[in-house]
């Protein structure tokens, strides 16, 4: 990842924390993607939420998505921790959630 100098750990102006979705806990309810549409999307192969843009929505919408998540899988983390969590998550084995094939068909 290329550095711009605006990262929080480098004293930049971006938000000092990041949004992280624990995909192993996510049940694919899609609520977060409806609340903060520019930040979250539902990953099509497994039907779970993912962050697509850390700066996509204002913090109050991100907090609402977190507060209303039925399984508490969305968290604030510091940017340094985010990379470690996302790297560890790539090693997890996930099964699709929801109705069989629903995520792949776009339902």
UniProtKB/TrEMBL annotation:
<dbReference type="InterPro" id="IPR017896">
    <property type="entry name" value="4Fe4S_Fe-S-bd"/>
</dbReference>
<keyword id="KW-0813">Transport</keyword>
<keyword id="KW-0249">Electron transport</keyword>
<dbReference type="Pfam" id="PF13370">
    <property type="entry name" value="Fer4_13"/>
</dbReference>
<dbReference type="GO" id="GO:0009055">
    <property type="term" value="F:electron transfer activity"/>
</dbReference>
<protein>
    <recommendedName>
        <fullName>Ferredoxin</fullName>
    </recommendedName>
</protein>
<comment type="function">
    <text>Ferredoxins are iron-sulfur proteins that transfer electrons in a wide variety of metabolic reactions.</text>
</comment>
<dbReference type="GO" id="GO:0051536">
    <property type="term" value="F:iron-sulfur cluster binding"/>
</dbReference>
<dbReference type="InterPro" id="IPR001080">
    <property type="entry name" value="3Fe4S_ferredoxin"/>
</dbReference>
<keyword id="KW-0479">Metal-binding</keyword>
<keyword id="KW-0408">Iron</keyword>
<dbReference type="GO" id="GO:0005506">
    <property type="term" value="F:iron ion binding"/>
</dbReference>
<feature type="domain" description="4Fe-4S ferredoxin-type">
    <location>
        <begin position="17"/>
        <end position="45"/>
    </location>
</feature>
<keyword id="KW-0411">Iron-sulfur</keyword>
